[in-house]
Design brief:
The structure holds two protein chains of two kinds.
Chain A (H helix, E strand, L loop, with lengths): L4 H8 L5 H24 L2 H18 L9 H24 L3 H14 L7 H11 L3 H11 L5 H8 L3 H21 L1
Chain B lengths: L1 H4 L13 H45 L1 E2 L2 E2 H10 L2 H77 L1
Antiparallel strand pairs in B: 1-2
Classes of the chains: A mainly alpha, B mainly alpha.
Chain lengths: ~180, ~160
């Protein structure tokens, strides 16, 4: 049975039970965090690094969580921000622009040992890799996590209408890519 | 959208065995490491702020006025009575004597220089006169010699 967020927060506020609360939080959200990141950055190694950074940030700033949104939304917001920062850093490090970075990611899909060998899955991932970063995040949050647009608008600070349009365009692009290949 | 629904596969992204357990352990190790560092930093900050406040307190005690008179002034008065102060004073007096001796020696030197300059100017004037005399002598000799030559030439002409 999943632990209630309020219970976790109450435990976290006391110094004695802080670690216990964080363990409960990790048990509850580790997969949500990891896969939210993995679907954006694709590589397991990169996702592992970012997941650990996100968890450290949660440990550091959970005291300041005001409860304006749900704990899950707050955590996914951190995941999205960290992933986007990581991608920007990686682009600079590899000296790649948006298009060339997408090509680099597409080639890495076939070589990744922690990704399905299924051809359709590989094609789907390649199509997602070619989407612009924000559109990619909108697509993965909706397609894999089935996140409601209202929650997504809190994560991405974008209007619901703009998110719907963004998702619509992303689906169209992915379908076109799959039809071509 | 229905086309894409059938491709959704949660297991497409694979993981190493026991990944989440290892990852949780690593995160806790990092948290403990950060806690150690922050505790050490907190200790350093507390210690340095304590040291700074002690220094400020000492500074205030030394320099702030005590009974209407600054502490520093009263301590300076006690310095004027001390042996060190007397020693410094005697050193200063001997220095003054040396300076006055040097000044008197300098004035003597200046007088000597002025005297030698007047002698020099006199000798310069004498030598100028001698040169003029010599020049005029030289002219007379040259004139008389040229007259002799002219006479010799005339005598030669007549003899021919």
């Amino acid at each position: 049975m999943p632990v209630d967020d309020q219970y976790i927060l109450a435990l976290f506020s006391k110094e004695k039970t802080k670690e216990q609360a964080f363990k409960l939080l990790m048990d509850k959200y580790k997969e949500v965090i990891y896969f939210a990141i993995r679907r954006v950055v694709f590589s397991h190694e990169d996702a592992n690094d970012i997941t650990q950074n996100v968890l450290l940030k949660i440990w550091r700033y959970l005291d300041k969580f005001r409860g304006d949104s749900s704990l899950k939304t707050w955590i996914i917001k951190i995941c999205v921000n960290e992933s986007l920062t990581f991608i920007e850093k990686k682009k600079k490090m590899l000296n790649l622009f948006d298009d060339s970075y997408a090509d680099y990611m597409v080639t890495s899909v076939a070589e990744d040992k922690y990704f399905s060998a299924d051809k359709i899955q590989q094609l789907l991932q390649k199509a997602i890799m070619l989407l612009p970063e924000k559109q990619k995040i909108v697509f993965t949050l909706r397609y894999y996590d089935e996140m409601p647009y209202e929650e997504m608008s809190k994560v991405l600070n974008t209007s619901v209408g703009a998110l719907k349009a963004s998702y619509h365009f992303a689906v169209k692009k992915v379908e076109e890519f799959l039809a071509k290949h | 959208m229905d086309n894409l629904e059938k491709y959704r596969d949660e297991n497409a992204f694979q993981l190493p065995n026991g990944y989440f357990e290892k990852m949780q352990d690593e995160v806790f190790q990092k948290i403990h490491y950060h806690q150690k560092i922050s505790r050490r930093n907190r200790f350093i900050i507390t210690f340095s702020s304590l040291a700074a406040s002690i220094l400020i307190f000492i500074g205030l005690f030394v320099f702030l006025p005590k009974n209407g008179q600054p502490v520093l002034v009263s301590s300076l008065d006690s310095v004027s009575e001390s042996k060190v102060f007397q020693q410094v004073n005697s050193e200063l007096n001997t220095n003054k004597e040396i300076v006055s001796e040097n000044e008197s020696m300098l004035s003597d030197d200046n007088k000597q220089i002025a005297a030698s300059e007047s002698v020099n100017s006199e000798t310069k004037n004498n030598s100028k006169d001698k040169v003029q005399q010599f020049n005029s002598l030289d002219y007379d000799i040259a004139e008389s010699y040229s007259e002799e030559l002219v006479y010799a030439d005339i005598a030669e002409l007549y003899s021919e």
